[in-house]
Amino acid sequence: MSDNMTPSMPPSGDPTPEQEPKDEGNIQAPETEIEIASEGFWTLSRMEKAEPYPLPEVSESQLEDMAESVAEELRQQPTAGSGSVALGGAPETATAQDGPTPAATSGGYNYPGPFTRHEPLCMVYPYITAGKIFFTQRGRSYVGSAFSIGNYAFFTAGHCVHDGSNSSAGWSQNLVFVPAYRDGNAPYGTWRATKLWARTRWYQNGIPNGLPEDMGGGVLLPINNRKISQVVGWLGFAWNWSKFQHWHSLGWPAAAPFNGNRLWDVQASYAYDGSVGGTIAMGNDMTGGCSGGPWVWQFGTGNYANGLNSYRLNSRPQEMCSPYFGDAAKSLKDLLVSATP
């Protein structure tokens, strides 16, 4: 299968892991320590007052002692060849986005990498699979972004489910997922998370050493006996592909100059390797609140999640970095999709 494959729209139905998922490298929040949001917890007033979760930033001084680990992890990323995919699915009631977007590039760019940004129709597939998340962490209310990946599951940045402090006190609480959020409206409901997971490397190391695995997610209670994947569909998933790709980065940036009320779509190609080994960068000016939004590859055809909004170098406000989606991302995705509330 080549990098420029254009698969047809996937059939409906929930994805099934290719084999029994493993817990290797993933850590679950103790269920006794997770607060599930009550039906009335997230009032409109509380949602409006929630802060954009600060987009993690890495300074030049933090990178000084990481040179060798950066080089080693980047050597492990494929630069060509074929990876694997899991298909996504659109809900029966959703309109699909028309047509493929530009093909992958074969090279990179210097900073700032080029990008375009627009406000899309958030109730059209695959946009409908993305949602704004609201959660509390150490007593403060925050917003971020996430996406449906099948069954009861959602996927997001690790820092949206745990603060990377290597402490059970760092888990997020009262997390809800609001797909297609727009101007305070929840057209497909407010979905409450009951279980959370993160990659262990993020949980233990945080910024900067945990950023190559800044990934997390959880499972959501059904609404009216329907799973989130039945209502909004889910994105496919692509891992172990060449890093030379073109993506649509989705999210609800809430820090200035954005206000968090609308979904934004930033289109860009691979620019260069991220400052932290095991990550990749694109041109992108979204701000806090976009954390955890998906990088969608083969948009309009395959619609595969192939990265997410994670962090940037603090001297480069027009870049966005993502963990490279390899075996670690696949492990967490399979675990989440196999889980139940």
Description:
The protein has helices spanning 44-49, 60-63, 67-75, 200-205, 228-232, 327-338; strands at residues 26-28, 51-52, 57-58, 84-86, 95-96, 116-118, 124-125, 130-137, 140-150, 153-156, 173-179, 191-199, 216-220, 236-239, 246-251, 264-273, 279-283, 294-297, 304-308, 312-313, 319-323. It is an alpha+beta fold and 341 residues long. The chain has a single domain (26-338), classed as Thrombin, subunit H. Strands 4, 6, 14, 15, 16, 17, 18, 19 and 21 form a nine-stranded mixed sheet that branches. Strands 8-9-10-13-12-11 form a six-stranded antiparallel β-barrel. A hairpin with a 2-residue loop joins strand 8 and strand 9. It is globular, with a radius of gyration of 18 Å. The relative contact order is 0.24.
Total strand segments: 21
Classify the secondary structure makeup into a structural class.
alpha+beta
Q: What ranges have pLDDT less than 50 throughout 5 or more consecutive residues? A: 1-13, 16-20
Helix content: 10-25%
Gross morphology: globular
Q: Element order, helices and strands?
A: EHEEHHEEEEEEEEEHEHEEEEEEEEH
CATH architecture type: Beta Barrel
* Average pLDDT figure: 89
The CATH topology is given as Thrombin, subunit H
Separation of the first and last Cα atoms: 35 Å
**Assembly classification:** single chain
User: What CATH first level would be assigned?
Assistant: Mainly Beta
Largest sheet: 9 strands, mixed
Residues in β-strands, percent = 25-35%
Radius of gyration: 18 Å
**Can you count the helices?**
6
Tell me the number of structural domains.
Answer: 1
